[in-house]
Specification:
heterodimer; A: 201 residues; alpha/beta; D-Maltodextrin-Binding Protein, domain 2; Arc Repressor Mutant, subunit A; 5-stranded mixed sheet; B: 394 residues; 2 domains; 21 helices; 10 strands; cell membrane (chain B)
Amino acid sequence: MPAPPARELTVMLVDNEPARAAIVEQAMIDSGYRVIRRLENAKNLTEAVTEFQPDMVIIDIESPDRDMLENMSRLTKDNPRPIVMFAEEDDSRHVEAAIRAGVSAYVVDGVNSGSVKALLQVAIARFREFQALRSELESVKSQLEDRKLIDKAKGLIMKHQQCDEPAAYQALRKLAMDRSQRMTDVARNIISVMELMGGSK
Amino acid sequence: MSQVETNTIQNAVPVRIGFIPLIDCAPFVIAQEKGFFLDEGVNVELSKEASWASIRDKVTFNLLDGAHMLASMPIAASLGIGTIKTAMQTSFTVSHNGNGITIGNALYQQLQNLADSSTDIRTGVALKRLIDRRSSELAPLRFAIVYPYSSHNYQLRDWLSRAGIDSDKDVQIIVVPPVKMLDSLKKGDIDGYCVGEPWNSLAVEQGVGHMLVTGYEIWGSTPEKVFGVNTVWAEQNEAIHLAIIRALEKACIWVDEENNQPELLNLLSHPDYLNCTVEQLRYGFSAVKPKGQFDWPMEAYQRFSGVDVNKPLPSYALWIMAQMYRWEQLHTRVSLNDVAEQVYRQDLYCKALGLIEEEHIAWRLSANEERTWLESVASGKIGLHAEGILKGFK
């Protein structure tokens, strides 16, 4: 039997996080793969897969539309099947790594498993990178919010106790230490109590 | 002194349990929110998941220890159907029933024109007539289910098949997530669906479609969701596993208590859980259903509590495997008895609740009978008793 002609692997990306999708797509193109379609929401996911016949679909593990793909291999034999089905034939560690990184994938039968693994590696790396970026952003954001809360509570104490800023800060710190609470939690309590008493106006 | 103080917490690292935001995740939410897990000395972390596939993958690779699962899922995983073969098991059925088949208004009108009586519509006879008369150039009628390995898929196919409709050739069956069912029906993307509540009642209430038949009328009373766990985890953490079963049992009783309904709906509607309005949840639990063409028999309502509901029956695992065989999902030869016994663990259910386990092996098929039994289910010669799995097969 003649070997099937070699051809490039085509990928469909499904991700409702446009920024991440863009990063992943670029990384794949850089690695020499062809991304034939990027879908932000999977409204017509099954139609799109039928129409474009990708070798592989990469989809965010948290997408509620994943289950739509689970049934596809029944509709046509050539449709992609969940990658966990292939984990048995291979070592399953790369599949586990993908799932841990939030990447899930569907692959058609007969695709070179080396290419699938390499492609998965690219997606995993970018998903992790994006996750790191996002948690960093979130921590910066929450730090900012913490500072705003503390400032507001300080202002309320200054007004109520008619003291200066360092004294208000000390009072807040002491309260936090006495109650072994975080400064922000104490600040939040002070603000809500003052609001209740109408003192925050 | 409360039980919380008497029971020390057994696990420092919380048990991670996944759930899908559907009404039948209620026992998990209640066990957590009402402190039933803690009462049993177990620290649990609930994790909201977006798809059944995600639950399967995460339990397979130990990102979750167990989950709210479709009753067929631990069987599919243990057989390696649609996934890498991973031993999973259940010792606790969370709910029975609650499914219905609903079709859109346009299809309903066509069926009315072809039906001699309303029975013709409910039994699929009118649908068969329509399919026979439809031009083959038209795209096939489309029905949606929630997952390939689900009671919804098997009940829909069974219902179609009884009317002489080939569920692979005469219609197209696709997967649509439950929350998108109603919208897809409205837009005409699908012609009908088989799904749990409240999506059947909401279609009726909003005048989008008509519910034809309930899952109960197709299969009698049968398991819908289970507490499925990774078997390796269950073997390494038996005390914790059994404690969780006790907590879930209490939660199921709490959920079925009518007086608790306002609090139940309130808790479930929270953004951490179903993230919806209380009104949307009402049809999932209340005895009141919207007035439709056909009524819900009381037996068809979802039930959560009682030994009849919660005890896993290996006979149901046999039944599910026969469905998988019938609809060409199960291709390899397996020992049905062994799989049923390993996956549906009534022994652990009894152990957890201190019940005396009756030597109950009547469900077993004789070893040389397995193949013919599968064939008989596939051809419709063997079915479930009209009242459901508790009464066995007929």
